[in-house]
Amino acid sequence: MELVPLTPDYPLTAFDCGDEDLNKFLLDDAKPSQELRIANTFILEADDGRIAAYFCLLSDKVSKDEVIGTRTAGQRLMLHAAELWFRHPVTGVDMHLEVPKEW
pTM, whole model, 2 decimals? Predict the structure, then answer.
């Protein structure tokens, strides 16, 4: 697997993670969001070249205080990982991001 930044000429192919909103964002909104400098998207490519996953770094924040109590029954919080490890695609530095234990 390889982590690569989304570029304007990156060939976005069919992607289905089981969540229509997340699929739509990658296929329809990720590139425009980068052009507007709202988010930077990174693609995790499987060894066969297919898109295995993606994540975005947003030019904003998610506050615990803003999230707690704002969901209605059946909605889910769109934060799916408590911990991420990856090699930064520009600097080559190994990155480790972890949600604080008290969350």
Answer: 0.58
